[in-house]
Amino acid sequence: MKIIVDDLSGKEIENFLNEHIEDMKATSPPESKHALDINELRKSEITFWSVYESGNLIGCGALKHVDDYYGEIKSMRIALGSRGKGIASQLLRHILNEAIDRGYDKVCLETGSMSFFDPARRLYTKFGFTECLPFGEYKEDPNSVFMDKLL
Prior knowledge:
Aminopeptidase
């Protein structure tokens, strides 16, 4: 498995992210969809990683610089056929190590409250994330779960 910083210029990652957006549209009402599109993920405050195995794109994730004290995890996704193999754990560990290297005090995230997101919430909980109040520009939303982890 190889995790690389991705400039989001390739068609493969564009298609992968479009699948992510379509999953979010099918699962969350429009007012509760917080997944960023590819143009938003290209902003300078976001570092985006793609995960490859045997030359195949199998996952992605991003870390948004919010301020000098914390970052936000965005767009974590593992390809359907690669789920349950520990890849998300390796990617999350990679992102958290980057956050530590940047000197952040904590990392936050938003994920869905529906059963579709149960595996994601279990992963984050396993890594020490706990539920928190909405942060940044987020508002209370019954379709969202907000989590953070002190580093």
